[in-house]
Amino acid sequence: MHAYQLVTRLPETVGALEDGVLHPVQARRLSEAVIGLTDEQCAQVQTRMLTKVAAAGSLSIAQFGRSLKRAVMVAAPKTAEQAHVDALAEARVEVRPLEYGMALLLAWLPAPDAFRVKAAIEARARVTGPAAVAGVDECRLIDARRAHALIELVELGASADPAVSPKRAGSAIQVTVGLQTLLGASDEPGELNGYGPIPASMARLIAADPGSTWRRLVTDPLGKLINYGRTRYEPPPELDEFIRARDRVCSFPNCHRRAVTCELDHIRPWAQGGETCADNLVTACARHHHLNHDGNRTNNRAPATGTTTWTSPTPGHTYPNPPPELPGAGS
Questions:
Q1: Which of 249, 225, 219, 208 has its CA nearest to residue 327?
Q2: Dihedral (C-alpha) 182, 185, 187, 193: value to the nearest 10 degrees?
Q3: What is the predicted pLDDT for the residue at 167?
Q4: pLDDT by residue (tens digit) across 93-114?
Q5: Helix 39-56 vs helix 61-75: crossing angle, to nearest 10
Q6: Is residue 74 a contact partner of residue 188, using CB atoms and an 8 Å limit?
Q7: What angle do CA 196, 201, 207 make, to 5 degrees?
Q8: Residue 62's closest CA among 194, 179, 182, 165?
Q9: Rounded distance between C-alpha atoms, residue 63 and residue 240, angstroms
Q10: I need a labelling partner for 159 at 20 to 30 A (CA). Which of 114, 165, 180, 292 fits?
Q11: What are the φ/ψ torsions at residue 92 (nearest 5 degrees)?
């Protein structure tokens, strides 16, 4: 089936595969993604993805997959919305017994709710939970704390009056949505941080939630005003939030650790005259932050494209990392 798709509906993809522009896995995923789409929608997805790959130079399998999901949603928004409605009907919770007195709790949830639960668990695990767990070494302790935090949160909810609807916890999730989508004039998908594209209807539903807090993310030249020069080393809260919202994940190629857990790295080091501004700061997880400073690696960010390029100590080895794709204003 996939070979048929490639030959008859994706001839340009076959050419890119033969030229080495696409990896076989990327070509297979593209052929799988357009099953069920019309020929016109299929051509739109193919053009968008090949253009994206050409502009970026190359994309990792994970980056390609996220962009492909968005391309399909943009080309066939009604199909994506119907698939979302069908998936909502499959929401459920299961418990599967395991060995040694353990069990696996599985929950099929809407992605924003799942990430909201995860954020609540993370928040409680940081401030509560056992200081030590018998038989658990230190590097695995945080997982034990998360499990304990989940039990505590469920017990807190169960102790309330069942007749009273519980208030939704203020656990932070980040959703980016274009203005036209927000106004209902476009069906371009939103972006749930840590997950990827979500249907426009879901993004609008989150926006309409009374508990939602909106911040305008500056993605135009006004962003250059967020510049504290040499007046301070640590970025202030508003700049810190801006960088994490912009980068979303660690800037090191193929590292997908979420920006909220990363450190901020001065591209031009502070000790060498680097400034504390949006163009000189990127997110880097602790491992790659220290690799940058201790491993003689350097990085550079192109403000116009947002691409961060890491350079290895060995001559001629550079690794560009294009920025995560975000929703546009909509058309």
A1: 219
A2: -20
A3: 54
A4: 999 999 989 999 999 999 999 9
A5: 140
A6: yes
A7: 85
A8: 194
A9: 24
A10: 114
A11: -165, 170
How far apart CA 209 and CA 215 sit, in angstroms, is 14
CA–CA distance, 43 with 65 (Å, rounded to integer): 17
Cα dihedral value 330, 239, 304, 323, nearest 10? -70
pLDDT tens for each residue of 40-86:
999 999 999 999 888 877 788 888 998 999 999 999 998 888 999 99
Tokens describing residue 314: 């060995």
DSSP letter string over 41-74?
HHHHHHHHHHHHHHHHS---HHHHHHHHHHHHHH
Please say whether the beta carbons of 181 and 187 come within 8 A. Answer: yes
What's the whole-model pTM score? 0.69
298-301 sheet: strands from edge to edge = 298-301, 308-311, 318-321
Q: Which residue has the tokens 């801006």?
A: 242
Q: Is 23 exposed, middle or buried (0-12, 13-18, 19+ CB in 10 A)?
A: middle
Q: What is the DSSP annotation of 171-206?
A: ----EE--HHHHTTS----EEETTTEEE-HHHHHHH
- The two tokens of residue 277 are 């501004």
Amino acid at 297: R
Q: How much of the chain exceeds pLDDT 90, in percent?
A: 24
Percentage of the chain exceeding pLDDT 70: 81
CA distances from 110 to 89, 116, 191, 275 (A): 10, 10, 14, 41
- Residue 232 has φ and ψ, to the nearest 5°, of -160, 150
For the CA atoms of 255, 256, 260, 261, the dihedral, rounded to the nearest 10 degrees, stands at -60
The single-letter DSSP state of residue 161 is: -
